[in-house]
Amino acid sequence: MSDHGFTAARAAATSARMRLGVKEPVAAIVLGSGLAALAERIEDAVRIPYAEIPGFHAPRVDGHKGELIRGTLGGREILALSGRFHMYEGHDAKAAAFPIRVVHALGAKVLFVSNAAGGVRRTFNPGDLMIIEDHINLMFRNPLIGAVEKGDIRFPDMSAPYSPRLIALLKECSAATGVPLTS
């Protein structure tokens, strides 16, 4: 098993930066199931297959292409992860979190995650956009287990894991555009 800690993430970011360039992204987005087509709308895209980034694995889920992309979307510099690694594929929590550590090391301070998820709430419909405001780890696996490296925070504050400012902005954009948003 390879190392997926912060030191390895910084090394992978250094390797990727040689191909991506040094432009600072305003955000990173994980293009999960259903949003793969958004990758084709990224302008001036530079693409690196996951197989060419140290510590990355090829995704095994249909529709997850397996590329780190740098480019512009809506006139803003972004990074996109076209596909991700899932623990149900046999990856441990550190490997699943590793690409997020890499995009952070590349300068992304804001992360948008998309996915296809099942639910039990009858008011939700397929394709709904949903804000996640909190979560409970019922898998009892944690990417923070193990030795503390320089740059690690042993116990990050989880009292507000998702930005109240970004949540308010998403709600404002939803109201202004008429795009329904659930939470």
Describe this entry's structure for a reader.
With 183 residues, this protein is an alpha/beta fold. Helices cover 23% and strands 18% of the residues. The chain is globular, with a radius of gyration of 17 Å. The N and C termini lie far apart (37 Å).
Strand content: 15-25%
Q: What is the average per-residue confidence, as pLDDT, rounded to a whole number?
A: 85
How many E strands?
A: 7
List segments where confidence is low: pLDDT < 50 over at least 5 consecutive residues.
none
Short précis:
With 183 residues, the chain is α/β, with parallel strands linked by helices. The protein has three helices and seven strands; from the N terminus they run H-E-E-E-E-H-E-E-H-E. Strands 2-3-4-1-5 form a five-stranded mixed β-sheet, covered by helices on one side.
Key attributes of the depicted protein:
183 residues; five-stranded mixed beta sheet; Rossmann fold; alpha/beta; globular; 3 helices
